[in-house]
Amino acid sequence: MRPVSGWTANWMFDPPVSTSNLNSGTTKDGHPWIGAENPKLVITEYTDYQCFQCRKMHFFLRQLITEYPDKIRLIHRHFPMDHSVNPIVKEPFHIGSGKMALMAIHAATRNKFWQMNDLLFELAAKSDVISVRKLAARLEMDPEAMVHSVNDRSARMLLQQDILSGLKLQIIGTPTYVIDENVYLAQIPPEIIKAALAD
Question: Which residue, 14, 90, 129, 172, shows the most beta carbons closer than 10 Å to its own?
């Protein structure tokens, strides 16, 4: 088993490998998950695509799930720290991360959530401006539908449900992780990961 020690040593990752070899699905309440069918550890993440710490932890967890696909399940929920969608953000901040979340919700309806998720984190790290049409082309999705997804009423309702869920947990920033009803801001205690990976 690979030791899970100092987190800072694990920050620099290439974009995650393809999700095609990993189990994935949706929870009973409709949230995308990836990883183990019968996990030893279930992690629910609340993230923002423009959050640097979210991106680092995203790549770390995806690498971990790739190495231990039968032990960990990651469930995704959106919590963009964008003042236009999140009531705890009172001033302009992470402008556009709400729209990115809406595009990811749209991709989920096309069974391409995890591909979109990876791509949004990758592109957000490289540029402040993301071309929706280029994004659609990378994922072989309909660009017009993606453009309109940011105004889709059902997608906005799903995003608000995630944000309200986070607010009920008293989440004040991202990334935040929920494990066995315990809430962890920014990172997951290494001992929790170690226990899940132990034989």
Answer: 172
